[in-house]
User: Fold these one by one.
Assistant:
Number 1:
Amino acid sequence: MDYRSLGASGLNVPVLGLGTANFRGGANPAAGVGDKTAARLADIAIERGAAFFDSADIYGAAEDVLGKALGKRRSQVLIATKAGLRSGSGSNETGASRHHLIEACERSLKRLGTDYIDLFQIHSFDGRTPVEETLSALEALIRAGKVRYIGCSNYAGWQLMKALAASDRHGWPRFVSHRVAWSLAARDAEWELAPLGADQNVASLVWSPLAGGALSGKYGRAGLPLDALDISGGALRALPAGQLAAIVDCLGEIATEAACSAAQVALAWLLERPTVATIFIGASSPEQLEANLGAIELRLTGDQLARLDEISARPLVYPHWLQHDAIAERMAQLPPVANVRVDKAPQMPRIAE
């Protein structure tokens, strides 16, 4: 297994980890796995070096199942969990207030059967709670030894930057990671979040890397029809008509060339994206997890990466298209320089060349 730094922290994390949203039904009862299968998935993750588990207080019994599956191996793994979304019917059982976060952390510790959480994340931005209240509560949890690192999830660029600036202003711990939806079918993170992460040294932790199974190889010419996918919600709803089919076809072609699965190609492409530290894989069976972990051994060629980039590219939104054109105009005034390339057609911004 390969390891990368978790943002500006000194913590090394495996590039592939295991998501637990489907443990005992969790956040997606239709795709849930029983406790015995969940325990086997945890065993495989540990055996293969992918011992970084992502959970949340709203994933049903997932934290309980994970804690029991790990047992005495707690010190051998990293646990990330989240709080901030509604976890109960009470008026204060939601949001990123000091009251809710401290209560949520205590409950997660109990369910997980541990006395510390490696990475405690705010599940989504809370616009009603001052960012200083959220961060001071997280700082208190760190001082108490209950949390070791903090991160956020599903933030907009300005929300993440506001939090980082507040941490710097008060001398509080910073978010070291940002959990983002990112895949060939959802590249929006490359407009603001990945450039911000690169600038501020905030790692990207990827969820839904296979776009809810759309990029797994299960759908397309050799599998179920794409019409069987529900694209009314999530990242797929934003894709232009026909682009998903083109992406799936390209994945199939490259999978044939590389003698691997379409899912492995999609994951290997993500591992080449700037700021990505860990990709959390969801699995419904040991066989599926073993196969997807094989992505670590796949190295796509420059041509294959370029084809995937091109087929999944989306038109830039304002102000990125204007900045792209302005940079291209300025670069055109300079003499040719080795290793400097100006894109001729609008596409997703490249953070590092």
Number 2:
Amino acid sequence: MRISRIAAAGLLAGIAVTAPVVAGDVKFRSTADAMRQGISAFNGGFYELALPALEELEKQKPVVARYYMARIYGDNEGAYTDHSKAYAFYKSLADELQDVDADDEELAPIAAKSLTAVSMYLRGNVPDANVRTDVAAADRWLHRAALFFNDEDAQFELAKVMLRGEGPDMTLGGNDDPQSKVESGRHWLSRLSRNGHPGAQAFLADLMWRGKFVDKDPATALNLIDVAVANAPASERVWIEDIYQNIFCNAGEGVRQQATGRVADWRNRYGRQPERRSIDKSGLDDLAVDPVRTCANGELVRPIEASALVSGPPVAPLTPPISPAIRTPNLGVPASSSSPPLAPAMTVPGYAPASGP
């Protein structure tokens, strides 16, 4: 079955214990109770409740339990961060699941996310994990997650690696051509952006704004980052909104007006249903918890449809202008991604770009 997000009521109803929440002290009536509490508490960010349940769940459903424990230990914002433990769990899952059926709705997404996480650790992106860097192995794991499992987050990581002229050799002739890798990286970013991947959209918007790897196009960059913000899951919002703030604050009035005229069309074409928060943490959701962002001149950062009153020219297709002309080689990937999502969206170590490649 596919693991789904569970509402707060499920969390409260599913806690079948009254003993102190300490690993080894908690008893659950059934495996279903342990899974209900473990995943519900994880989704709500209550890791102190999730871990005992997941440790109990590991006896009967080790793959699911280890995956969620890996995510808890790999969360830099949590109180249980331990990248050595996270890597150990991800590596065991990657070893065990690398050959599962790519259409398996329960195991394939876990396999892809684990392979991608292992690749990031082996690439040296998480120094405190005490993992020896092995770029060749990192390339193999990432290649499998991106192509065999058709995982969008893996494809996004692959795009960033290839833009640096690195990553697995994907040519038929076996020639390691850095320029071909750069073009393949641009291909992946364009493809993912068209499919509504918020990370790829934000990353590509930043490249367009700076004119790096693609022609500089401020209005398209502003439109694209606007869509990315609308698409972004909670786990990715900070760095995506950082890029939006930079582009919005530095865009002139003409750029804003041009972008404003095509906001609705772009959100229609390249938008996704935004992630909905299903858990009310202690009744605090009614407070304004999002940061108030301002430009250097004190102007409030706001959605672009409110920033200008004059419509711009008709919308153009989302085809990033690239010089020289971009090639989109057939890499053996289906035209659209069908990887079933895990809830909530996973943050892979080293996932968010600080300032682009």
